[in-house]
Amino acid sequence: MPPPAARPSLARLATRGALWTGFGHYVTFALGLAKAIILARLIGREYFGLLAGAAVWASYLSFARLDLRLAVLKSREEPETLNTQFLLENASASAGLMVAALLALVWPHLASPTVWWLIFVLLAAAQLEALTSTSVYLTERRLRQDVLGRFTALAAVIGSVVPVLVALGGAALPALLVDAVLPVLIPRLGSLLFTRWRPAFVWDPRQLREQLRLAWTLWSTGLLGKITYQFDDWLVFNLNRPRPVIWLGSGVEPEALYDRAYSLGKLPMDLVAGMIGGNALSLYVESAARGREVLVAVYRQVTWILAWMIFASGTYAFVAADDLVHILGEQWVPMVPLLRLMILFVVGRPLFQNHAQLLLAMRRERDVRAAMAVQAVFILLACPPAVYWFGAAGASVVVSVMSLIGLVIAERRVTRSLGSPTWPLYVVPGSAAIAVLALVAVLGPTLPASIWLSATVKGIVSALGFGTALWLFDRAAALEAWRIVRRGVRRE
Question: Which of 66, 142, 188, 328 could form a disulfide with 332 if both were Cys (CB 3.0 to 4.6 A apart)?
Answer without folding.
Answer: 328
